[in-house]
Amino acid sequence: MSFDKDELRDEYPDGTVRLRNPNIELMDQDILYHLALGSGSHDLVEMFGDVKFVCLGGTPKRMEQFAYTIMAEIGHKLPCGTTLHDISQFSYRYSMYKVGPVLCISHGMGIPSVGILLHEVIKLMYHAKVRDPVFFRIGTCGGIGFEGGNVIISEEAVDGNLRNIYELTVLGKNIQRPAKLDKRLVRELKSLADPEDPYDTVTGKTMCTYDFYEGQGRLDGAFCDFTEADKMEYLESIHKAGVVNIEMESLAFAALTHHAGIKAAVVCVTLLDRLKGDQMLAPKEVSDEWQQRPTKLVCRYIKRYLQMKGRLSLDGHGSIAVKSPRRFKLVQQESENYD
């Protein structure tokens, strides 16, 4: 479970994350506003130094459920008298749960939301001196040629023009960053698909859009300046180009993790086949079960890794560790007030 030789590595010799920002080391303290944490207020090494896996998903509820699932899978035991704790509850933006070496965090919806979170989570890995972390995005998507309930492992992320780049404007200039995912990790995840699973697990290109309606060719938004025929021509063209699903986060997720030299993968479940419609019609109990399917695959990977390393049933770090009570209170206030 290592990087391919041609993968980007941007870390220190001991495997800890190296930031591409010299300003951070010059700061008195680095406040992670949207996580309600700070390098001066919290002992981040004590709290997060044992993290190996960072699992991101859309909603706080989904990631809380994932935290309980992975806790059972790896046999992690909470200290007597304690419960699972939302570490970032005072940010009121994202939720974060820690289960031994696994960090479970909600990322919200869309590229801006996941981008903000990743900047701070990558900095958190740096401050906590985490070694060789592996990031997963676990989510939902619209299938292209695949019915609801199938699991898609992204081979690469592309934008609406099928470009494998994440483009943003910085100081008035357009910056393009390659949106690459770890190829070996894709293969390892695919190998863990169970032939007995009542659904397919496939790999392919994931299209990431900046919009749910017009950007994904839906006919049911507040605006629509194209026809059903236009939509179908476009969807069939991207399907022929190897696109198997559409969602709204993978482009930024792939580009920022790659830029940081972090091994990452995207695993989603399809909620419908966009070649057959725009709206999901499956009953809630069915879609709820579908959403557990990518979770199961990621859990298999994590459990196998920990078994190989002899690290199951860890008590680990995770409790709030305050270095400075005064700064701790200030960080809470800053996070509550920061827009």
Outline:
With 339 residues, this protein is of the alpha/beta class. The chain contains nine helices and twelve strands. Strand 10 (201-208), helix 5 (228-240) and strand 11 form a beta-alpha-beta unit.
Structural features, described:
This is Nucleoside phosphorylase domain-containing protein. GO terms for molecular function: uridine phosphorylase activity. Phosphate binds at residues 93, 137-140. The protein has 339 residues and is α/β, with parallel strands linked by helices. It has a single domain, classed as Rossmann fold, CATH 3.40.50.1580. The protein has helices at residues 44-48, 60-74, 111-127, 183-191, 228-240, 250-259, 284-290, 292-309, 325-337, and strands at 31-32, 37-38, 53-57, 96-99, 102-106, 134-143, 151-158, 165-170, 173-178, 201-208, 243-247, 263-273. Helix 2 packs parallel to helix 8 and helix 3 (111-127) packs parallel to helix 6 (250-259). The chain is globular. The two termini are 39 Å apart.
Could you tell me the strand content as a percent range?
A: 15-25%
In quaternary terms, these chains amount to: single chain
Measured as a percent range, the helix fraction is: 25-40%
List the uncertain runs: 1-8, 314-318
Described by the principal axes of the CA atoms, the overall outline is: globular
Q: Mean of the pLDDT scores?
A: 91
* N→C terminal distance: 39 Å
Count, helices: 9
CATH architecture: 3-Layer(aba) Sandwich
What name does CATH use for the topology? Rossmann fold
How many domains would you count in the coordinates?
Answer: 1
Order of H and E elements: EEHEHEEHEEEEHEHEHEHHH
In the CATH scheme, the class would be Alpha Beta
Count of β-strands: 12
How are strands sequenced across the largest beta sheet?
6-11-10-7-12
